[in-house]
Design a protein that fits this description.
5-stranded antiparallel beta sheet, 11 helices, globular, binds flavin-adenine dinucleotide
């Protein structure tokens, strides 16, 4: 198990680590350990996964996958990554509706933090979960599906309710996409037309550096069986493959230039076999109502001198509303403002500056990234936090799955 998270900015302080090889051993572990948390693939940028007890990896548990007979769902054990799962689904002619920007992350870890991709019609990845089985601190296995009253508190749960040992995910028939990068789209086009640009394909990402060139890159992921958009918003098609971060090898990114390919080789920006993104980075991200997209763009534009020097790149995406209690959309069609920062001490100040600028739009921070919004403000942003605290009290009365960071965010340290 790694000593740090993927980015290397968090050294896990857990005094014990464990990699049980079967479910019975995991049960025995949680029954006796006062504190336990699971580490997925460790791609979060804060200590969300850490514990002062036993940090558990599910990697050595039996890895199971069962496609439902009517082929509209798959049940998987808790350690699958999107990359490995996509490979199996594609072989069966099936697909997930969406992915995040990288296939390397675990499904359970991604759904636990509100991870999302892009697309006006695409919800966060956790919205595909139709049933989840948790191991509680007593070692009991409890399952819930979409019909359960607390279901939307259980999927995006920050690892706080128990160990996700199995999940059932909605499937769709496999589909193909073609990816095209449109370069040098002027700021003024994005400022007033962000929602229209994000609506131009199945999944769209707008990359910007808030730099002096005021030019932006639009990554279109278009359904291969539909006519592609002719809109270029004042930009032009890239003449070769690109990487979202300038200066990084384009070969690490998924194929572009309009070449059709399977969903799982176009929806993520980064190929499974390579380091995603830059590697030397921290990330922050905020979701806010799409209706405020232009105002939020202007708010960040006003501090571009603060943001640009510290940035690898910024990414703007669309996320459809979902009903998760701790969901980043708050139930509204949303735009996500993401920042890939160059690692360094100045990032903390820039994060505060971004949060001040986006505060009028009730921007919600990504739970797996760097943010500094205080718990008192989170309480206002997430009106279902009292329900979540009640659920924690019911399922984990001894606070086995707590840690200071998460309990601070959700107000359990004040309860
Ligand atoms: C290069 C890069 C690109 C990224 N791109 C995106 C993106 O496109 N969109 C986006 O929204 N986010 C993105 N992220 C953020 C990332 O998706 C989240 O941090 C996600 O949580 C990572 O999953 P993980 O398996 O690494 O989780 P971890 O960081 O290991 O854990 C996250 C949380 O999930 C809990 N957890 C994990 N597994 C279980 C389990 N089985 N049972 C109970 N709790 C569990 C942990 O305890 C912890 O609280 C990116 C991160 C990186 C490094």
């Amino acid at each position: 198990m790694p000593a740090t998270n993927w980015a290397g900015n968090v050294r896990f302080g857990a005094p014990r680590r464990s990699r049980p090889g079967d479910v019975r051993s995991l049960q025995r572990l949680v029954e006796v350990a006062p504190r336990v948390r699971v580490l997925g693939t460790g791609h979060s940028f804060n200590p969300i996964a850490d514990t002062d007890g036993v940090l558990v990896s599910l990697a050595a548990l039996p890895k199971t996958l069962a496609i439902e007979p009517d082929r509209d769902a798959v049940e998987i054990s808790g350690q699958w990554t999107y990359g490995d799962l996509a490979h199996e689904l594609d072989r069966a002619g099936l697909a997930l509706p969406n992915t995040g920007s990288l296939p390397h992350i675990s499904v359970a870890g991604a759904c636990s933090t509100g991870t999302h991709g892009s697309g006006l019609g695409n919800q966060s990845l956790g919205a595909s979960v139709r049933a989840v089985t948790l191991m509680t601190a007593t070692g009991d296995l409890i399952s819930a599906d979409r019909g359960s009253p607390d279901f939307h508190g259980r999927v995006l749960a920050l690892g706080r309710l128990g160990i996700v040992v199995a999940m059932s995910l909605d499937l769709v028939p496999t589909f193909r996409l073609a990816q095209t990068v449109v370069e040098d789209v002027p700021d003024e086009e994005v400022e007033v037309g962000l929602e229209a640009i994000l609506a131009a394909a199945y999944s769209v990402s707008v990359f910007t550096t808030w730099g002096p060139d005021r030019a932006n890159h639009v990554w279109l992921k278009e359904l291969a069986d539909r006519s592609p958009t002719e809109e270029r918003w004042g930009g032009r098609d890239a003449d070769g493959p690109r990487h979202p971060v300038a200066g990084m090898p384009p070969g690490n990114a998924t194929p572009q230039l309009g070449e059709p390919g399977p969903w799982h080789e176009r929806l993520p920006h980064f190929r499974l076999a390579f380091t995603p993104s830059s590697g030397d980075e921290l990330q922050s991200e905020y979701l806010l109502p799409m209706t405020d997209a232009t105002a939020a763009w202007q708010a960040i534009d006003a501090i571009r001198d603060v943001v640009h020097p510290l940035l690898h790149v910024s990414e703007l995406r669309a996320v459809a509303p979902d009903p998760m209690w701790l969901g980043l959309t708050g139930g509204a069609p949303s735009v996500a403002f993401h920042f890939t920062w160059r690692t360094g001490p100045a990032v903390a100040e820039a994060v505060v500056a971004v949060e001040e600028q986006l505060s009028p739009y009730d921007a919600r921070p990504h739970w797996g990234k760097v943010f500094s919004i205080p718990p008192v403000r989170l309480e206002r942003l997430y009106p279902r936090l009292p329900d979540f605290r009640r659920l924690v009290g019911e399922l984990d009365p001894a606070a086995t799955f707590g840690n200071d960071l998460v309990d601070g965010w959700i107000g359990l340290d004040r309860a």
